[in-house]
């Protein structure tokens, strides 16, 4: 699928980022034009002092540093700097760069990936100084010719993520006190793994409570009872909300036709998708896109 926005990031050599898997730079005074809203194929985290507004998915977040911010490639985002002066650092890396069992688990539990947590952390001066030291090290290593720079950068990223979790622990840590909480967690994990839809011909495999129950090897009645017990909402509602959220992103941030989006989301006919979308949102896909 072709992104609607694929603008270069000011101050970033995008070819180098895609080749090496990581890139870091010192933030300069913001350009006149904001970074356009869209999805991108890398993670981004930074430390910034300055008045700015982040468009993140369907949220608008206003910050006044020092702030540590995290950008997930699955979620469309853009940045508007409202003050002419800013200081800070930015580090970008691809998912394939940050590999390994422990690092993958750390990434999944970090603000870069956690669903529902704010993508920014306000820092006090002591915390900001500590983070600035790590980012300075990353920038220095990236600019040097150290043979093992990639591994050193990974270690610095890991330290930033671990410190961010210490400063702002996850809001909802699954405790699995009973079978219902465990199966509900597995359901949401499986639901989220299907997104984003980004490649032509890619289609959702799981669209109903029966699909998810089969994938989890449980009876659909058990899955429905567990999800309703833990969340207060039926399984079908969570599935519908997530499919519609993805539909909104595809309508806003890609040039795909509505028929292509309907097909990618598993609807046999475009009219089925139109009716589904309107039933959940109150608007047709065409009116929403406009």
UniProtKB/TrEMBL annotation:
Does the keyword section mention Transcription?
yes
What superkingdom does the record give?
Answer: Bacteria
Output the Pfam families linked to this UniProt entry.
HTH_18
Domain HTH araC/xylS-type as annotated: residue spans: 181-290
Q: Which UniProt keywords apply?
A: DNA-binding, Transcription, Transcription regulation
Q: Identify the PANTHER family for this entry.
A: ARAC-FAMILY TRANSCRIPTIONAL REGULATOR, TRANSCRIPTIONAL REGULATORY PROTEIN
Full protein name: AraC family transcriptional regulator
| Phylogenetic classification of the source organism | Bacteria, Pseudomonadati, Bacteroidota, Chitinophagia, Chitinophagales
């Amino acid at each position: 699928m072709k992104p609607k926005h694929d603008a270069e990031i000011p101050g970033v050599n995008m070819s180098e980022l895609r080749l090496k898997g990581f890139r870091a730079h010192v933030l300069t005074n913001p350009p006149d034009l904001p970074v356009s809203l869209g999805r991108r194929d890398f993670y981004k985290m930074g430390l910034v002092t300055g008045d700015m507004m982040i468009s993140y998915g369907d949220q608008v977040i206003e910050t006044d540093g020092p702030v540590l911010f995290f950008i997930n490639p699955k979620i469309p985002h853009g940045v508007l700097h409202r003050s002419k002066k800013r200081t800070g650092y930015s580090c970008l890396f691809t998912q394939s760069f940050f590999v390994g069992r422990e690092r993958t688990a750390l990434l999944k539990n970090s603000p870069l990936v956690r669903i529902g947590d704010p993508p920014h952390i306000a820092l006090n001066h002591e915390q900001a100084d500590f983070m600035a030291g790590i980012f300075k090290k990353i920038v220095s290593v990236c600019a040097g010719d150290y043979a093992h720079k990639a591994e050193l950068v990974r270690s610095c990223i890991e330290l930033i993520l671990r410190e961010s979790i210490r400063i702002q622990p996850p809001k909802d840590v699954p405790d699995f006190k009973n079978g219902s909480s465990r199966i509900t967690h597995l359901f949401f994990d499986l639901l989220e793994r299907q997104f984003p839809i980004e490649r032509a011909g890619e289609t959702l495999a799981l669209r109903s409570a029966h699909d998810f129950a089969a994938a989890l090897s449980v009876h659909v009645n058990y899955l429905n009872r567990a999800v309703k017990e833990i969340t207060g909402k039926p399984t079908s509602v969570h599935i519908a909300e997530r499919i519609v959220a993805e539909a909104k992103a595809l309508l806003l941030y890609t040039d795909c036709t509505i028929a292509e989006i309907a097909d990618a989301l598993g609807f046999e006919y475009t009219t089925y998708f139109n009716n589904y979308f309107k039933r959940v949102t109150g608007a047709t896909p065409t009116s929403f896109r406009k």
